[in-house]
Write a structure and sequence with these properties.
The structure is a homotetramer of 350-residue chains.
Chain A (H helix, E strand, L loop, with lengths): L1 E4 L5 H13 L3 E6 L4 E6 L8 H4 L4 E5 L19 E4 L2 E3 L3 E7 L6 H14 L3 E3 L17 H14 L2 E5 L3 H10 L2 E4 L7 H10 L3 E4 L6 H12 L6 E5 L17 H8 L4 E3 L1 H5 L2 H14 L3 E5 L17 H17 L3 E2 L12
Parallel strand pairs in A: 7-8, 7-14, 7-15, 8-9, 9-10, 10-11, 11-12, 12-13
Antiparallel strand pairs in A: 1-3, 1-4, 2-3, 5-6
Helix pairs in contact in A: 3-4, 3-11, 4-5, 5-6, 6-7, 10-11
Amino acid sequence: MLVVMQPAATAADIERVCEEITRQGFKPLPMPGEVRTAIGLLGDDSKADWSYIEALPGVASVLIVQKPYRQASREWKPETTIVEIAPGVRFGGPEIAIVAGPCSVESEEQIVTSARAVRAAGATALRGGAFKPRSSPYAFQGLGKQGLELLALARRETGLAIVTEAMDEHGADLVAEYADCIQIGARNMQNYSLLRHVGRLGKPVMLKRGMAATINDLLLSAEYILAEGNPNVILCERGVRTFDSATRNLFDLTAIPVVQKLSHLPIVADPSHGTGLRDKVTPMARAAVAAGADGVLVEVHPQPDKALSDGAQSLYPEQFAQLVQQLRPIAEAIGRSLAPTPGTAPVDVR
Amino acid sequence: MLVVMQPAATAADIERVCEEITRQGFKPLPMPGEVRTAIGLLGDDSKADWSYIEALPGVASVLIVQKPYRQASREWKPETTIVEIAPGVRFGGPEIAIVAGPCSVESEEQIVTSARAVRAAGATALRGGAFKPRSSPYAFQGLGKQGLELLALARRETGLAIVTEAMDEHGADLVAEYADCIQIGARNMQNYSLLRHVGRLGKPVMLKRGMAATINDLLLSAEYILAEGNPNVILCERGVRTFDSATRNLFDLTAIPVVQKLSHLPIVADPSHGTGLRDKVTPMARAAVAAGADGVLVEVHPQPDKALSDGAQSLYPEQFAQLVQQLRPIAEAIGRSLAPTPGTAPVDVR
Amino acid sequence: MLVVMQPAATAADIERVCEEITRQGFKPLPMPGEVRTAIGLLGDDSKADWSYIEALPGVASVLIVQKPYRQASREWKPETTIVEIAPGVRFGGPEIAIVAGPCSVESEEQIVTSARAVRAAGATALRGGAFKPRSSPYAFQGLGKQGLELLALARRETGLAIVTEAMDEHGADLVAEYADCIQIGARNMQNYSLLRHVGRLGKPVMLKRGMAATINDLLLSAEYILAEGNPNVILCERGVRTFDSATRNLFDLTAIPVVQKLSHLPIVADPSHGTGLRDKVTPMARAAVAAGADGVLVEVHPQPDKALSDGAQSLYPEQFAQLVQQLRPIAEAIGRSLAPTPGTAPVDVR
Amino acid sequence: MLVVMQPAATAADIERVCEEITRQGFKPLPMPGEVRTAIGLLGDDSKADWSYIEALPGVASVLIVQKPYRQASREWKPETTIVEIAPGVRFGGPEIAIVAGPCSVESEEQIVTSARAVRAAGATALRGGAFKPRSSPYAFQGLGKQGLELLALARRETGLAIVTEAMDEHGADLVAEYADCIQIGARNMQNYSLLRHVGRLGKPVMLKRGMAATINDLLLSAEYILAEGNPNVILCERGVRTFDSATRNLFDLTAIPVVQKLSHLPIVADPSHGTGLRDKVTPMARAAVAAGADGVLVEVHPQPDKALSDGAQSLYPEQFAQLVQQLRPIAEAIGRSLAPTPGTAPVDVR
């Protein structure tokens, strides 16, 4: 913490800031300069809310040293957290997990066909929405509980772990019952009531970055979950809003090494939402692995032309299989490998 | 709707797009050009989800004519909606409503003192948070139900209508019981479960624009509330995320005339969150009224230095009184006026 | 300047940073904290390039106290600079100057008609492009030197001062010869060779904010001109790039009070480019004056439907006249007034 | 081109738009819908400036079909352009070119040491600034012509081709004399006078994307160079401005496949400026190659702690050598390879 005074600040202004710092239980350290004075503070400045020091007379700005999140920080826990969402399905270790499947669960045939196809190609887990956050209230909103039952069926058929989104507390309870990992979508990244709720459920959570969220915001949202005692948080980069309409979002792959330096939590990337365009998914999934992602989420649909949502960004099963073939040597080039597909015998992992 | 084909598209590609349009119940109208063919569509194209046409072979892009929202559109309802949140407290008519008060409700003395001060200066309604969405889980989160009781007390003391935020369904039920208008904050603008819930409660809703929300997104979120049968929606511009850290947000005042052209819903502006800096609130509140806002939200605290949240952006009561004096002639310059303060006799409007 | 060390930094790391600070001629002041050490620095830290301290082992981050610009700062010159571009045509004093005219100079009739119309309505200066920066090389690029001659003719006819853009050094020499103020457009805001050149010409300069420029960037670009000995710089807010395509740019009116606090230079606003839409120009010009702008730039064309560039954002002369009538009481509401039109007798101010 | 009329547009409004389309030499095709009429246009709509149709009464919006650039488009030239800047040093073919070197040329020893180190590690060309665009006028601005002479010396010593920036027309003439490829920096991407000038010089140009430039803007700027008859343009992604200060810029790797679909021009990526942080350069250079970049630019300095500019983002020579080792298998995973280092015998390629 450093309080920078204005050049015109008086001795009384400086004194008042020092008194306030002392009142808060810290030790002020004035540093007179040629042009102005700065006042340092000794102690752990993350413990206080400093906005009112900024508003004292003569203060030019306050520079914060400590990060506002704690348990999410790599300073809190130096070794990378490995989140295991089902037996053998891990995020954060040397193996890279591939989560694939359709945008929405549409029918038994569609989800089982999808699950078999992505498993055959090399996926580790199955994604598919039962509750869909759609920007229009008139668009298809998902099959709800029936969708969760179909996902559980697909898991029995293939052994794939299930990752699926919850949009509210009631939905989170249901997802926790049927699936292996609760996804919190970008639009709910700062829905703090929901974050607290999934923190208390204890189930692994995949937290997607919001459309205008900084890395700092993302880690603070993770902190809401961790603070409730749930350590199993996987972060997900899926693109942020920007000025160019050439792609749906601006896929921020640098977020991967940035998060890995600041936090011990694993981070995956979602090139399907990150780009919104089928022919960009393959190059950007490769780039995500090359950048060090702990996993990738890819939308795959047996018949993208007929999909009820996001068909334009879903890969055909053959395209997905080719992608996985390209990802293997890239993983190896950086000393990692793709996670193996769960055992071939159908298994009910619940 | 116009489907633009690639220059290299074949006759078969064009035929397939025409068939698909026909299958959807519309009439295709091919328009061959020098370089490429475009295919028009006759009918109401808002009824379909066209993403899979984009993915057909030979299609370059799809241009959408219809807006994705309906009831929020001025084409649906040409005259401006007037939302009355309490007897005589209206948004959307010729009078401009001023909503003022502290960021958080902190104590009986603080909220009653604030309410009296802002009422004396010319406010129409009282704002103050009982449930606070804070980016850090360790920051002050509001007094909850007790805060709502204190707001109701301040209303009895001053006659001011109450606007306060809800963060989840349970909180919305409580806010509906105690206050006059439920505020949905920027972080929950796309929390569709909550939007549906407040749509069903029927109470007036003030919907704040999300940090990365386009005007289109904002109107789609309003549509979620309207679609549940609640017509009383007030929109609020409060700044969007951008690249310059000189202010907390980029306050987008052009959103006011843009919304007023596209929608019949009233729109207010919040220069306190829009700028995040006390000395910018006064000029930007003036600018909001000059731009045509139907109301302004201003944070005012009796002792900003001691505020538990957002002290650095709260006005002192004297500053707020001066601001209101400046707003009067600006309102008159554009043919409007400030809404009168509710009757001096204490009134319980519940 | 505050160097924040990582929690794991060793005593040797801290020692090395202190040595480097000493080597640079400053005095280091280590501040051990509970979690980590920070190292303050006594002296004027604007004199050094600190990027390599950031890269030393054990350094977490470097917080900069001093602003990187000097002569543009209000700390350098507390009183607001008044820039007089022609006798009586001033920016930065109590009077608000209105600069109006077409996007491009197209013909003698067009520019003289425009000049007479905007003068009659209350403009102080005439704008109009002779050199046009167009994003397409195939679009109309302006009349060049002939356009400058027509602007000089319009000045003789009306007495209005002339503001017009230069795109390169040769063009700047010509503009300096014919006009009263050289405009540097948004696309050239960081064309440092051109900034230096117009700094040396000595003529008043209107410097437009770039599409992705922070306020800090804008003031640094002004510093390039000031550093060459030219104190006559007028800044101009004209909108920045953002994610919403509802308007051409995001018009950042908060930049006005932000600049006025940080710098002594006058600042004007351009709602025509800031919004790109004719029906948004009037409300946003009013908002600019209410926010405290020292002037406004407005595109006005006698026949917007026939304009060779930017017709969709140009006001009709009647609309402009109505706008000026609305601006007068708004200026008065904040203790200012509109600048008077130059003397009625035709004057050649050159 | 599709002109979308407002629902309230009259038959006369529609007639007027049709007349205007006819007057422009095209054929109008009205398409009445349930809610509103749209008017299609047959012909090559890239030939006209349609802004005034947007401003006609009753028009809601105009949707443009044709792209505004021509020669830069892959529709104009389907096969990818290969730009050869020196014998054997090519961009756009199956081989990926690595351009490396310090931010600025500082001395003979520094540049020759750098050149030898990057050549030994596998670079194809040498980068290094003689003219530096610095945001502060008081920062080191480069050695100018002397810097170019040192680059030419380094070429004689190592055989590496030279890529270096020009900031104005005079500088471009000098760079064309001494180097193999003229770099146009992000700040000058829309300096159209300079683009025209380098278009006429005929020398290969590396055009960096501006900080707020869309892909469309980038291709239009390339069009300025192509339109002067110079086909040798290499595009460069180097990050755009965004709201998160975690990195210097937001490195937009999706731009690579987006550009490769829209244009035949080669595109390279600059992870050093794209991230601004040394430890992010290696993962993002790998990601760029995995995304399909035709080359990468990497800042390497023999002693980053002592660099006069951008030391914090420069790799140590050993780090660069390790990076190149990681890039080889990634290139092979997607069917490409790294370009070989120019012949070991010192060669003067001029």
